[in-house]
Amino acid sequence: MFNLANQLTLARIFFVVTIVLLLYFPGRLTCFLATLLFGIASLTDYLDGHIARKSNMVTSFGKFLDPLADKLLICSILIMFVELRWIPGWVTIIIIVRELAVTGLRAMAADEGVVIAADKYGKIKTVMQIVAIIPLLLHYPILGINLHLIGNFLLYIALALTVFSGLNYFYRFYGVWRESDRNV
User: Fold this and answer.
1) For 18-46, how does the pLDDT look when each residue is reduced to its tens digit (9 = 90+)?
2) For residue 35, with 0-12 CB atoms within 10 Å meaning exposed, 13-18 middle and 19 or more buried, which class applies?
3) Whose CA is closest to 129, among 38, 66, 64, 15?
4) Taking the complete model, does pTM exceed 0.85, yes or no?
5) What is the C-alpha end-to-end distance of the chain, expressed in Å?
6) Quick one: three-class SS letters along the chain?
7) How far apart are CA 68 and CA 45, in angstroms?
8) Cβ-contact 44, 9 below 8 angstroms
9) Cβ atoms < 10 Å from Cβ of 99
10) pLDDT of 72 higher than 80
């Protein structure tokens, strides 16, 4: 159960706590450290899945914990950004509602014996959220570049992808649901 892949996932959850604590004391150094930890945590998201599949370490625990760790990482940071007044609250609400809705949808599908795996749009959404969070975490201008403005611009792109990918999951589930109704 606590193989290398799952240990990386657990480490990502530990990073969430540390990043949030750093953001409680926003400054150039703490924001840089939070960005560094976020980058490492984002890499563990890729590595844990890669290692689990390649080394045949896929576990039920990992299947449950990995998406949870991803949501904790992204949503916790976005909530802190709202607390710091770095982004509008409504953006974070939409992203969190989408994550909860898709999680609920997957649970309903699983109850019907159907697995709704992450699709390319969900993966692109996650990458775009990570790309947007990095300049938002750095926050302070570097070499005259307004990272906050760049991060907000990227966040709106991530928001559009978040909504689109969420709608796509519901569309896919609707197709599965209709097909199962026809077979009854």
Assistant:
1) 999 999 999 999 999 999 999 999 998 88
2) buried
3) 38
4) yes
5) 38
6) CCCHHHHHHHHHHHHHHHHHHHHCCCCHHHHHHHHHHHHHHHHHHHHHHHHHHHCCCCCHHHHHHHHHHHHHHHHHHHHHHHHCCCCCHHHHHHHHHHHHHHHHHHHHHHHCCCCCCCCHHHHHHHHHHHHHHHHHHHCCCECCECHHHHHHHHHHHHHHHHHHHHHHHHHHHHHHHHHHHHCC
7) 11
8) yes
9) 18
10) yes
The C-alpha atoms of residue 148 and residue 81 are separated, in whole angstroms, by 11
Name residues whose C-beta falls within 8 Å of residue 184's C-beta, 6 or more positions apart in sequence: none
More confident residue, 65 or 141: 141
Contact 6, 61 (CB under 8 A): yes
Tens of pLDDT along 124-142? 999 999 999 999 999 999 9
